[in-house]
Specification:
Chain lengths: 502, 352
């Protein structure tokens, strides 16, 4: 007889104004199972998890833990049912200690006074269950710990409340390889103890490495539940993208890039530098070419782009455009020169969340025109509708608030914002971060298209394969210095890694 | 008979407007609904509330009193909407009213200047005060609350300096007209409509309103998209200062004397309240100008109704606070979600 599922979700429905985020979605988790939840951006993964953890009330459907119906009203409430979450950005309190974070809300008290000794003991015990007790000081302030440790603390907290279901939402996106390995071994241990783990990630390798089952969502609907062992990788990608396997093969093939040399130089960067951010650097940006910036985090990738775009003004060197030397000291100036920049952090410096898609798209164009030359409403509508169609932004209307869109669609809106000003140089800082395979392919396709139309592009990505696939030349950076410039045939992941590791 | 017909027509129009606003999910729906509730209450419980009379070409009546007295706060709230929309706040507008009033009275009485110049000079003080606030917030990057408290506290001192600590009385037909005049309806309300028209034109006729909203909602992203957040923030404070000067002229003219201690006292709080009731978020973002004016009228309607019902001024703030609390709660997404979700929850408990 099959064992009764730990968690069942049946016919889950959830709508937001103008968007039906979940349509009749089923999900089943058994104890001792690692279950990957997969889907493109906008597929409904995060909404499903938020319904499960009580962040959103569900509009319809049933949810049961070990056969008992549950209605969690908040994440804290969900914890009471044994459902614990570790979010992408760890949802702990940075200024408290490790021990306080583990026991927060459930401190041992005597006559209302917290017994710190007991709290620390309990925290140590929770960490010991993860077999990590000697590595982590329970009295350290959480913000002083690495992201990896913070995540372990979040998991320890989940154990301390005797959670039966652990949700890991993009847990490895800020971890290095060794840290990810450690996380996976902990997951294996928890699994052995009978915990059910829901694992959300964009990394296919990791899915196959640890998962037993895979549930695929697409456009808020259930595509299917599969056994990980029986679902080939290509098949999974195809299901996520709502495509047939053959189509995906074609897409991967087309990724190979041909190089043309001898292009016209649009912008020359000469000894550009800023203290504490980049050392003097030289490079050229050519018409109809993608220049990739490769390097580890902190190597000066994003910093170079920010100095170039005038977010942080350079304190030395110059930028030569059409043979004329100029200084760029603000984004507004950069835009007048014909630059556009998609920033790394969409939420922080990209979207204007409470304004509509239309307004977000025309923002840069309007800024360039100045306040007095208002873009006529009809023209604004046309521009917005044009980009919604051209970039396939999934939305019921151009008036939808940007905050209600999925990450991938938000990214497209911001790309549209820059395309609207017809830049000669478009800087793309992590254009596919936190974005699903399907939209990623679309964005890469767009990069190729813009390049072929003669735009100059600067591409920054922490995904090496993305840089390799899309760039005609690659600058390799290390410790804020340019250490190599690769072109054409020389561009390969291996070569770049070797250069960085030299 | 005609009166009943007129009231019927008025209510039909009001309900139609409410219905339209609701259908468009317009934020002005909630403050207007609250205002309608007060008007409905008065329809049944306050005799003569709806009696409008024409006397010597002027319209008189309780509703006319309400819009007349609401004018000061309405004008303030227009400037305040821009400031709050840009993610700031201006606590100094009450004090700026006193400075503008003091300037006008002083120049007229002590310096014997023509009323036109007095008015212009008073408006200039508002402009200056706004530039000072804008300088502190936009250029010196002092948090708006702290920056504008400086002028809130010191502004009355400045006004006292101008009047040399005296209450200056004046009696000039032009100056009297600002706060007491009528062109069919009270002149202060006409001024409100003019300021509203100017504000609307400046923000919606150009892209400034959109830019203020972008800066208020996400300043970092707005700057990266090429907006000059500094300039925009500076300008909204200048505009708020100008609005405060206009409101100060109305108030001073209304009582025909410059009383530095009392002109505009606590009105910054009413203005902020009107903006909040109007639905503009304190965290910045969307601007709702008309809605703020309705908010100002709502506050005055409450006050007037309480006078009409002989509620003691000592307890009057309590029902006023309750109504305002209700409007704010209705606008809170959390409360609305809770109300919309109640059947769901009830069912859930029943099954557990």
């Amino acid at each position: 007889m099959r064992q009764e599922p730990l968690l069942t979700m049946r016919g889950i429905e959830k709508s937001f104004p103008g968007v039906r985020a979940l349509k009749d979605v089923d999900f089943t988790l058994r104890s001792g199972q690692i279950h990957a939840l997969m889907g493109e951006n906008g597929a409904g993964k995060s909404t499903l998890i938020k319904v499960l953890t009580g962040v959103y009330p569900r509009d319809g459907g049933d949810m049961a833990m070990e056969g008992t119906r549950i209605f969690p009203s908040s994440p804290r409430d969900a914890e009471k049912f044994g459902i614990s979450t570790v979010y992408q950005e760890v949802n702990l309190i940075p200024h408290l200690t490790v021990a306080e974070n583990i026991c927060l809300g459930r401190e041992d008290r005597a006559a209302g006074i917290i017994r710190w000794k007991k709290v620390r003991e309990r925290a140590r015990k929770a960490l010991a269950r993860l077999e990590l007790d000697d590595g982590i000081d329970v009295e350290a302030q959480l913000s002083d710990c690495s992201i990896a440790v913070q995540q372990m603390v979040a998991i320890a907290r989940a154990l301390d409340i005797d959670a039966k279901v652990l949700i890991l939402d993009e847990p490895t996106s800020s971890l290095d390889e060794a840290e990810s390995d450690e996380l996976f071994s902990i997951m294996a241990r928890l699994k052995k103890r009978g915990m059910g783990i829901i694992f959300v990630t964009h990394f296919l390798d990791q899915v196959y490495r640890v998962s037993d089952a895979i549930t695929v969502l697409r456009n808020g609907q259930l595509v299917g539940e599969y056994s990980a062992a029986e679902l080939p990788r290509l098949e999974l990608v195809a299901r996520m993208m709502g495509k047939r396997a053959e189509e995906v093969k074609r897409l991967e093939k087309r990724a190979a890039v041909t190089t043309k040399s001898g292009r016209k130089t649009v912008i020359s960067v000469r000894r550009l530098a800023r203290k504490g951010s980049i050392n003097p650097i030289d490079f050229d940006l050519n018409e109809g070419e993608v220049l990739g910036l490769a390097g580890l985090l902190g190597s000066g990738r994003s910093e170079t782009a920010e100095v170039l775009f005038g977010v942080d003004a350079a304190d030395a060197g110059e930028i030569e455009i059409d043979g004329r030397a100029t200084k760029v000291d603000s984004p507004a100036k950069a835009m007048r020169l014909g630059f556009g920049m998609l920033t790394e952090d969409r939420k922080y410096s990209g979207i204007i969340p409470n304004l509509s898609i239309k307004e977000n798209i025309i923002l840069a164009m309007q800024a360039k025109l100045g306040p007095l030359k208002k873009i006529p409403p009809r023209q604004a509508n046309e521009i917005a509708d044009g980009f919604i169609k051209a970039l396939d932004i999934r939305t019921p209307s151009r008036e939808q608030l940007v905050k209600n869109l999925s990450g991938g669609n938000q990214q497209k809106v911001i790309i549209a914002r820059w395309l609207a000003i017809h830049p000669r140089l478009l800087i793309l800082d992590e254009p596919t971060r936190g974005i699903d395979v399907g939209t990623r392919a679309e964005i890469e396709e767009l990069i190729r298209k813009l390049r072929d139309e003669g735009m100059s592009l600067l591409l920054i990505s922490s995904e090496l394969d993305e840089v390799v696939r899309n760039s005609q030349r690659v600058l390799v950076l290390r410790d804020r210095n340019k250490i190599a410039e690769l072109a054409g045939e020389d561009i390969s992941e291996q070569r770049i890694l070797h250069t960085i590791a030299q | 008979m005609t009166r009943i017909a007129a009231i019927a027509v008025f209510w039909t129009c009001l309900l139609a407007v409410l219905y339209l606003l609701r259908r468009q999910r317009n934020v002005a729906f909630w403050p207007l609904l609250a205002l309608s509730a007060i008007l409905l209450f008065n329809l049944f419980f306050t005799p003569h509330f709806y009696n409008l009379e024409m006397r010597g070409g002027h319209l008189y009546g309780v509703p006319i009193d309400i819009i007349n007295h609401a004018s000061k706060v309405a004008v303030l709230s227009l400037g305040m909407t821009l400031v709050i929309g840009a993610g700031g706040i201006d606590l100094s507008v009450g004090a700026v009213m006193a400075i503008a009033g003091a300037t006008m009275a002083h120049l007229n009485i002590e310096a014997g200047m023509a009323p036109g110049y007095c008015i212009l000079a008073a408006l200039a003080t508002g402009l200056l005060a706004g530039m000072w606030n804008g300088f502190l917030v936009a250029i010196m990057e002092i948090p708006p609350m702290v920056a504008t408290i400086i002028l809130m506290v010191s502004g009355r001192g400045v006004a006292q300096l101008i009047t040399s600590g005296q209450i200056i009385n004046f009696n000039n037909p032009v100056l009297n007209f600002i706060g007491n005049g009528f062109i069919l309806i009270p002149f202060p309300f006409i001024l409100t409509l003019v300021v509203f028209g100017v504000t609307y034109g400046v923000t919606r006729g150009t892209a400034l309103g959109f830019m203020i909203e972008a800066v208020g909602d996400n300043e970092v992203a707005a700057r990266r998209a090429g907006l000059s957040a500094k300039t925009i923030k500076f300008l909204v404070y200048v505009f708020a200062g100008l609005c405060a000067a206009v409101a100060g002229l109305v108030h001073t003219s209304n009582i025909r004397s410059a009383d530095a201690n009392n002109i505009g006292l606590y009105l910054e709080l009413d203005a902020i309240m009107a903006v909040v009731i109007g639905g503009t978020a304190m965290t910045g973002g969307r601007l709702y100008l008309a809605s703020s004016v309705i908010g100002a009228i709502l506050i005055q309607a409450l006050t007037t109704t309480m006078y009409a019902k002989d509620v003691s001024p000592v307890v009057a703030p309590v029902p006023k606070a309750l109504v305002i609390l209700a409007v704010c709660l209705l606008q809170s997404e959390r409360v609305r979600r809770y109300l919309a979700d109640r059947p769901n929850r009830a069912q859930g408990r029943g099954n557990e």
